[in-house]
Write a structure and sequence with these properties.
225 residues, alpha+beta, Jelly Rolls, Arc Repressor Mutant, subunit A, 4-stranded antiparallel beta sheet, 11 strands, 44% helix
Length: 225
């Protein structure tokens, strides 16, 4: 299952219609910052098409990208719930269409439509599990193992259940390093190793994960499935 493809799909038709009636459609250009870290704002966003990345920026300029946001996803809900500034920045990785729900509409839907509220709870529980998984990885895995785990996540996001996955546009080594909290040189060395094994291939504006089961076997305790 892709990481963020399920929220809108969980809604009953009547709940989805209620959402669309209260939201406005926004076109987003590739590279556009949709929400900015630490800025105020209570709108909630629902992705109809396109992809974005959520990232946190440290004071020293270091970037930690931690979430891929694709069709069906919701983001911006944390600030809408607690009223605090945005916890992260969200930047469009490609052209997008999003529904923008004002805070009053968000509160109304969560208060009056149980199906919408339950889908939101499922989404928040999913995000908590993802964060717990990443904390475990940072605490117990070497950088090379965290890279494999991240590549497997991206493969599942782009081609759920498939033996191969094609990532377009391909993440560069700096992007991958920011996702797994390491430096670019470590990613470059490990990607070269995986390439020599025939597990990944970068060409023609894509990153091909050529054999997902074999890549999974590179994880601690992993085996081909």
């Amino acid at each position: 299952m892709g990481e963020e493809t399920e929220f809108l799909g969980r809604l009953q038709p009547e709940d989805l219609q209620a959402l669309k009636a209260r939201a406005r459609l926004r076109q987003v250009a590739r590279g556009e910052v949709i929400v900015a870290q630490e800025e105020p704002g209570l709108d909630v966003y629902f992705v109809l098409s396109g992809r974005a990345v959520a990232a946190i920026y440290a004071d020293n300029g270091r970037v930690v990208a931690y979430r891929d946001i694709g069709p069906g996803a919701v983001f911006g809900e944390i600030a809408a719930i607690d009223g605090a500034p945005r916890t992260a920045s969200v930047e469009a990785a490609e052209a997008m269409q999003v529904l923008v729900l004002p805070p009053a509409g968000f509160r109304e839907l969560t208060a009056t439509r149980p199906g919408f509220a339950w889908a939101l709870l499922e989404h928040l529980a999913q995000q908590m599990r993802r964060m717990t998984e990443r904390v475990f990885e940072y605490s117990t895995m070497l950088a090379r193992e965290r890279l494999v785990a991240e590549l497997l996540r991206l493969a599942e996001l782009h081609a759920p259940g498939a033996r191969q996955a094609e990532l377009r546009p391909p993440p560069n080594h700096f992007d991958l390093a920011s996702r797994i909290s390491t430096h670019r040189e470590a990613v470059s060395r490990e990607m070269s190793r995986l390439s020599s094994m025939g597990l990944v291939e970068r060409a023609d504006g894509r990153l091909l994960i050529a054999d997902v089961p074999r890549l999974r076997a590179e994880m601690p305790g992993g085996r081909e499935g």
